[in-house]
TrEMBL record:
Residues 288-410 form the Mur ligase C-terminal domain. Belongs to the folylpolyglutamate synthase family. Monomer. One of its GO terms (cellular component) is cytoplasm. This is Dihydrofolate synthase/folylpolyglutamate synthase. The lineage of its organism: Bacteria, Pseudomonadati, Nitrospirota, Nitrospiria, Nitrospirales.
Amino acid sequence: MTYSATVQFLYGLQQHGIKLGLETVRALLTRMGEPHRCYPVLHIGGTNGKGSTAAMTAAILQAAGYRVGLYTSPHLIDFRERIRINGAMIPEDTVSRLVETLRSAAAPDLAPTFFEFTTALAFQYFADCQVDVAVLEVGLGGRFDATNVVEPLACAITTIGLDHEAYLGSTLEAIAFEKAGIVKPAVPVVLGRIESLTRRVIEQRASEVAAPLYCLGREFQCDGPSTADCRYVGRSSHYDHLSCPLQGRFQLDNIACSLALIELARERGLGVSEPAVRSGLQHVAWEGRLEIVAESPTIMVDGAHNPAAAAVLAGYLADWRRGRPGARISLIVGMMRDKHPREFLAPLLSQADTLILTQADLPRASTGSELRTLLQDCAPTAQVAATPADALTAAKRSAAPSDLICVTGSLMLVGEIKALLRGCSLSPVRG
């Protein structure tokens, strides 16, 4: 198949929906010769922060001289963003070739979902390219996520918050139980900023399987005035004056989790020097999280889509406003129908001078009008724009050069805005 036809095939797999479970992906990987067992793995889950933590960890390992596979989801613009080696996306012709191989392996009796198929594709690509180590971001939950077939050197759970309740449960404790499913016998676990009640759920799982547990604020921490100048103190490492380009004080926690993982990886045979730690952090890139994509006015995109991430974004916007008296903030928001717009916007409305509601180009996205109906009592002056392009045009029309336009509520919306600004087309596979 051509690459275009391959992507259309992958898009068609979304008709299978989301099926949590490991039987199909295990069977497919067995037929492929178990490529996921060809290299050591670091496995990272959590509600928020897992993508940034994975990107930092991969960047540090690459700076240490390793050939590093990085598997993340979702992508923003190009499907190939999900599967990278040393920062380079998987080539188009390789996607087409491996998809054909996996289709043959799945026939006639396996019907993998989009995410199961993509996960197997990443594992096979990493094996073919003989990576030294792979960094894997959990897709959804943990216990039944397709990535959870690995036996990692170490794993991390960054945060626990309400998200994907239809699949993971309606309480923080239920969600913590699902995410704790990545904890394996005797495999050390890094825990980020997690409240005591939900932490106990993970501690119980770790105790049952004799997995050593290392907690932020207890065995390791990262502090400082900003990510541009911070300090890490861990079990065996102490670094002063670290610098990371990712914005937001919340990234200090992600730096801490990444460096704790690096410490554990080092104890298990992956040599990583202090210069590699400093260089990796200094050069890490992670799109769509407090990312400035244009100036005059400033346009920032942030993929926050749940209440916990919205609270973090609201804190950043409050800091931004304090440093720029008189500047205005316009919010462009689009969300999926399974999210909670009232709870999401609760911490953000006080920071927004203008709110524009729109719809990402996906069937499961709420329309701007649907969002306005849900928000009519708490955001009665919200505007509606039919498309992200219309929303961006409206926001720019009323913005002064010193103002901020913040696009948030969905990584899918963030991807569309970034594609608009780049003048490029989106991959049709976006789940």
